[in-house]
Amino acid sequence: MISCDAIETAAHQIMHNAAIDIPEDYRRAVAGMAAREEGLSCFVLQTMLENYDAASADRRPMCADTGLPRYYVKVGNEARIEGGMVALEKALRVATARATRDIPLRPNRVHPLWRTDPNNNVGMFAPEIDWSFEPRADWLELTTVHKGGLFGTDYRMLFPGDGVDGIKRFLLDTLIAFGKRGLACQPAIVGVGLGGAKDACMTLGKQAACLRVVGDRHPDPKIAALELELKDLGNAIGMGPMGFAGRAMVADLHIEVGHTHTGGMPMSVHTFCLSSRRATVRICPGDAPQFQFQYRSDPQWFSDYMRREGIE
């Protein structure tokens, strides 16, 4: 049995981890880009790395804008949760409010019309919680992502005849527009969603950006090759960190696909900002706290079960 106290404790801790400690895979990517850049672009990247170190040393959030904290929850099919799923949701909302006060996180959530602010990042449909399930498992995994909620996302309904060239064209249009207008904090991990219904396409692209680590490749070798091709394309447009001239716009690019309507090929593009704030914990049933919580920075969200195509 996994207790609600354990869930709240773990969710509160990963809020700290995500806001303060930049994942090592992204730090390595930025360091590699800094070694290749020159001038202002190199200076920006080196300053970012220094800021990462300062945030970890001082135990303060890396960025003053701590984004919109949200959760991705993977439930083992054999997991038993005290109070059920409603109690789990309540624990996540309480942990969010506590973390907003304790870290602190900037209270970014406001009513869209009245602009009233509860000062705890909790409200109607907030924080967002995405769910997934895993067979033959008795654990619960929580991932929090702190992603900016204003820009860095676009969508277009392509058609089958557009093919890969159409995908490339939309990606270039999007990245150039983001860079010129300051709508993304690059270098970014870019997520591309292909297929699904419109809302599923947006979800796949966002998860591809936020829940896969730098260097991770799609299990389909053709999609993996396209990921690398699009990454190189994004870094060849002459735009570097924070819009300066350079070659460091895309830290990595991930594609997730879903079966879609026969007449269309929806595509979404999402950029995860230069903080790449994510953290994961697996909660295992048991009485010894040292065996309950397993923290990491790789969400390992996309399992074979999630990407299954057929009927079991």
Structure summary:
With 312 residues, the protein is α+β, with helices and mostly antiparallel strands. 38% of the residues lie in helices and 21% in strands.
Please give a structural write-up:
The chain is of the alpha+beta class. It has 2 domains: 126 residues, Dihydrodipicolinate Reductase, domain 2 (2-Layer Sandwich), CATH 3.30.360; 122 residues, no CATH class. It is 38% helix and 21% strand. A 5-stranded mixed β-sheet has the order 2-1-3-8-9. A 4-stranded mixed β-sheet has the order 4-7-5-6. Helix 4 links the parallel strand 1 and strand 2. Helix 1 runs parallel beside helix 4 and helix 2 packs antiparallel against helix 3. The longest helix has 20 residues. The model has no long low-confidence stretch (mean pLDDT 94).
Order of helices and strands: HHHEHEEEHEHHEEEHE
Residue windows where pLDDT falls under 50 for at least 5 positions: none
Number of domains: 2
Whole-number average pLDDT? Answer: 94
Task: Give the amount of beta strand, in percent.
Answer: 15-25%
CATH class of the largest domain: Alpha Beta
Helix proportion: 25-40%
CATH architecture of the largest domain: 2-Layer Sandwich
Intertermini distance: 28 Å
SS summary, helix count: 8
> Can you tell me the overall shape?
globular
